[in-house]
Each structure stands twice: as structure tokens, then as C-alpha cells.
Request: fold
Amino acid sequence: MMSSGETDRFPAAKQLVEERLVVWYFVAALTYLLISMLGGILVGLQLIHYNPFAGIELMAPGRWRMVHTNAIAYGFLANGFLGALHWAVPRLTLFPVASRKLSYFIFAAWQVVVLCTAGAIILGPSLQTAPWVADLAKEYGISMSLGAQGLEWGETPFWIDPLALVGLALVAFNFFVPITRVKGPMYVTLWYFMAAFVWTFLTYAMGNLMSEYTVAGTSAGAIAGLFIHDLVGLFVTPLGWGLMYYFVPILLKRPIWSHGLSLVGFWGLAFFYPLNGIHHFLYTPIPMFLQYGAVIATIAVELVVTTVIINFIGTIWGRGREAFENLPVRYFYCGMLYYFITCAQCALQVTLTFQKLIHFTDWVVGHAHLVMFGVFSMWIFGMMTYLFPRLLGRDWYSTKLCEWHFWLSASGVLVMAIDLGLAGVFQGYFWAALLPWDVSVDGSQPFWIARMLAGLSMFAGLLCFLWNLWMTWQAGEETSTQAAPAV
Ligand code: HEM
Reply:
């Protein structure tokens, strides 16, 4: 917990934040990240013809690919963000969450949602074909899907969706109470958080209920595109940027460069991002006017993102050394650099000319890793690196291991993104030349082997972090020399 010196200086901070819960959220997040990465490694090994679990149904790479992406989104990112929110919102508003008991309930309910989804993905297809399930279905004349839903990031089975929605509504309530008690102008972080709570609930309901029950055909495609893009843009992005607007000024001990520009970024995101979804489905039977609309909205988002990046460059201007010397700040700015590269990729991807080449190729997978790991995971690692010593009241066991974590992660994901980007261009040309499918699969092998090495580097980074955390936790009495400001 917080060091005694710090508590004396800022007695209110201790009462505001339920620090034990922040630790729980972070530990849960790291556990899911570990499992998810192992799933990614399994799928990557399958693609280079080395599956250590070949023939074991429950370890089928198809199922673990779904666990890999689902557990990243709802297990790692959601838990990581919820932990950081429990730290940031009370400190920023100077009011505690609506109810600490509710916070613990949400924590438990959320783990049930993530674990049931993983269980449904892994066990569902096996249960579905089990003779006793078939007999029961025949006897009662019912047929229902026990497994996961077939929509990326919308896999949560229908019987767990209501719990997830209740959980998201309660998260919104729990944080809205302190936020609405704030008097006077509201800092941009809180704008982002409030929007994220509403948008995440709506996006989740749209993707999990509409695609399951109300739409089909190309409409379902349009909704699926909207859903998956909005999850990135209206759940992960506002929480990520909102937290950056909180942590960066605190760590640099100077205000954000331009409050006005930060609001341009927020409202630009709110207005243009929801219109982007169909850019995932260019060249599909979805009407062309919708596809063009998505292209134009994507270009608008590019401009909005540029304003946000400029604002953060302005904030660190003249103190650039801190991006090298202060590890959490380095994580944050490295994530921003990768964010900018991802957006530059987007500018290419969204043109119909380039789409013709890279559609359905590994370019997209490289892009997904760069944004999910290179940006948002790096930000969460930065927050954890900064907060764990304050939460545990102990300095890091080894700053060298912290450095290893950073460099193995930052270099691993960059190599993976470049490698898969190149793989995508090669695959696109193989297909455009109408060569047999096998040629593109064989031609991808060197890239898939390189992807494994990059993935193992990222995984080694995580192991360094986990070992460091374990050793820090094991250290005897509280030794932290770090003092955290009250807000
Ligand atoms: C040990 C490191 C990792 C390895 C080896 C790995 C490998 C893979 C593989 C093989 C796929 C399937 C690609 C395909 O369908 O062709 C995949 C998909 C994906 N991975 Fe990972 N992954 C790793 C870590 C991560 C992390 C840490 C994140 C996020 C923080 C992540 C996010 C994703 C996403 C979003 C997709 C879906 C891409 C898409 O559908 O376009 N991965 N990964």
C-alpha cells in the first residue's frame, strides 16, 4: 500500500482510493494477458506447422485464437483500465466511487463474464456435439448454442450477455456519481471517461444483441464492422487517451499544452469515430455510399488524432529527455509514437487502391497488434510501472527488469508489425497473381517464423515484468521512496 510518508502528506488520497482493488484489477489483467499470449503463441506455432497439442480437441488453435483476442479485450485491457480508473477518478474528482462494495461486486462479476466466455469458447463446441446434450435437445425440442457467438470480440455467449451489460451499467453508475459531483469546468479526462462509459454499454449491446437476434446478411456485416471498430474507438481509445491526459501531466508535473486542443480531439473522436466501422468491409456488398462515407470519416479521424499527438508533443516540449529517462513516461510516449504509425497505416489502408492489395492479409493482423499491444498495452504497462510501487509501498525489486520489459515489448511488437505488414503485401501480390493458395501459404512461412520470434520477445518481456512484480511483492517491509501527488 502507499508508503507511510506519502499517507502523512496526503491523508485524503488514501481514503479516496480503494488501493487493494486497483492491485486486484492489475493482477487479473496480467493473468489474462499471460493466458492470452500463450494462446497467441499456440496459434502462431500452428501456422508454422508445429502444434505441440495436435489432436487435443480442447487445445484446438481455432478455439484458442478466439480466447487470445477475447481475453485480451475483456480480460487484459478492461481489467487494466478498470484498475487505473479506480485510481484516477477519485483522485481527479476528489470524491470516492459511489460504492466500494459495488466496485468489488463488479470486479467479481467481470471475472465471471471473462471466464465463462473462455469456457464457452473452449468447451462449447465439444458440449454441443456431446450425445447427452443432443438427447436433451431432442427430448425438449430445443436447440440452442452453448458455445461462443461467432463474432470477433462479440464471442460472449448469449447467456452471459445480460450479466456483462448489467456490469457495464454498474461501472458507469459507480464512476458517474463522483464525476457529477465535480463543480466547475471539467477536465478533458473526465469527458473521455463519461463518454466511454456510455459508448461501451451501447456498443456492447449493439454487437452482442443486434447481430445475434435482429440483423442478417450485409446489414449484419455493417453492424459487425461498426461494433468491432467502435469497441476500439469508443471503449479502448477514450479510456486510453483519457488516462494519458491524467497521467502525463502528473508525471511531467506540468499542465497539458492546450486544453482547447484536447477538447477538439475529444469532440472530433465523438463525431467521426462511429462513422468509421464500414472501412473494415470495403469491397463487400455493403452499399458503396456507406463505404465511401466510412473512408471520409476515417480521414477526418486522422486529422483529429494529429491534434491529440501535437498536444502531447507540446506538453513534453523542451523536456524530451524525460521520455528516455523516466520509464512510465517512455511507455506513454512510445505508445503515442506507435499510435501515430498505426494512424499512418490507416491512411493507406483506407484507400480502395491499397485495400485491393491488403484485404484479408496479415497486414491487418500486424496493424491490430501494433495498436492493441504497441499502444494500449504499452500505456497500461506504463501505468502499472508507475503505480505498483505506490500500491505495494515498495520500490521495484529490479529496475533492470523493468527496462528489459520495456525493450523486449517495444522492439517485439515493432518487429511483429513490420514483419506482418510485409507478409501482407507479399500475400496480396500472390493472390493478385492468381497463384494457387498453397503458394501464398508457403511464401508466408518465413514471415510467420519471424512473427513467432517477435511474439516470444514480447512474452519474455511479460515474464520479466511478472517475475519483477513477484519479487517486489515478496520484499519484506514497505520501502517505497516514491511519493505520489494527491491528485
Ligand atoms: C506472444 C505474443 C503474441 C503472438 C505470438 C500472437 C499471435 C497471434 C496470432 C497467430 C493471431 C491470429 C492471426 C490470424 O488469424 O492469422 C493473433 C491475432 C490477434 N492478436 Fe495476437 N499474438 C500475441 C500477442 C498479442 C497481444 C499482447 C495482443 C493485444 C494486446 C494481441 C492482439 C491480437 C489481435 C487484436 C488479433 C486479431 C487480429 C485480427 O483479427 O486482425 N496479440 N495473434
Observations:
- Confidence is low (pLDDT under 50) at residues 1-11, 483-487.
